[in-house]
Specification:
single chain, mainly alpha
Length: 77
């Protein structure tokens, strides 16, 4: 039992969670620069448009991808 407790303690101290970017869009936590095919401007305009689409539905969950794809199509036209 003592060995198990020691291993759990070591595991807890080694595990660290870091975030590079806190943009809460579709769970994306990487920088905009790593999104291939997106300029920062296009990404921001798409994210804003998707936000307003979600807002119009009172942020009902389950439509995130649908909102993003519709916003992307709208912004790139």
């Amino acid at each position: 039992m003592e060995l198990l407790t020691e291993n759990l303690t070591k595991t807890k101290t080694k595990t660290k969670t870091t975030r590079k970017n806190s943009i809460p869009v579709m769970g994306i936590e990487s920088g905009v620069g790593s999104l291939s095919g997106y300029s920062e401007d296009l990404y921001c305009r798409t994210a804003e448009c998707a936000y307003y689409k979600a807002q119009s539905r009172s942020f009902e969950p389950g439509h995130e991808m649908e909102d993003w794809l519709a916003a992307e199509a709208e912004v790139t036209q």
